Amino acid sequence: AVVIFVLGRHFLQQPIERLLEGHPKIKAVDAAASSAGFKLIFLLRLSPLNYSLLCWLLAVSKARFRSYLLACLGMFPGNFSTVYVGFAAKHAADLAKRVKDNDGHLPAGDSMVHEVTLFLGLAAAILASVVVARIAMKAIKRAAEDSQKHSEVHS
Fold it and tell me: Is 58 helix (H, G, I), strand (E, B) or coil?
């Protein structure tokens, strides 16, 4: 994320700004990112946006590096959920194979409580991700609208 920020800020900012001139919504998010700073960038990191694309967009924005760097902490919940989903999927595939090999029964040593807990944890992780993403997207939309109204007033 830091490498992308440095490359984008120092080598690509002017060409990208020219490309984005015709996109008022993106310009509003840029203005909001520079005025709301850490809070908005953190919410963007919590949202279901592509991390790489977001890194590039923030690199060419007016966001401050310190806010950008600290807001990278917002990537952890999404990464955790992604890893947990992968773990649960692999576990489910392994469990299905073990049950098949054991004539349709849960093999000795496997606990139904463990299985239920694991998949309830998966459901909770997915639910938390969806709720956090919805909250983040609403806050981003509100910040972009506020920034756009603010820029219209000062124009």
Answer: helix
Categorise residue 109: left if φ over 0, alpha if ψ from -120 to 50, beta otherwise. left
Give dist(CA 9, CA 125) in Å, integer.
Answer: 34
How many Å apart are CA 75 and CA 57, to the nearest integer? 16
**Cα 71 to Cα 83: distance, rounded to the nearest angstrom:** 20
CA-CA distance, 134 to 128, in Å (whole number)?
10
DSSP per-residue letters across 20-47: HTT-HHHHHHHHHHHHHTHHHHHHHHHS
Q: What is the mean pLDDT of the chain?
A: 81
Amino acid found at 116: V
pLDDT digits (tens, 9 = 90+) for 64-103: 888 888 988 888 887 888 888 888 889 889 888 988 888 8
